[in-house]
Amino acid sequence: MASFGENLRREREMRGVTLEEISTATKISLRFLQALEREDFNVLPGGIFTRSFIRAYAKYLGMDEEPLLAEYQVTAQPKGDIDFSRLSAAKPLPQREGSRAAVLALLLAAAMLGGSYPLYRYSRRVAEGQQQKAAGPDQLSAAPSPAQSQPNQGAAPVQGSPSTQPTGPEATPVGAQRPRDNGASPNASGAAASAVAARAKGQSELTLQVAATERSWVAIAADGKTSFQRILNPDEVKTLKAKESFDVITGNAEGIILTLNGETLKPLGGRNVYKKVHLTHDDLSNPAP
Question: What was the pLDDT predicted at 88?
Answer without folding.
Answer: 46
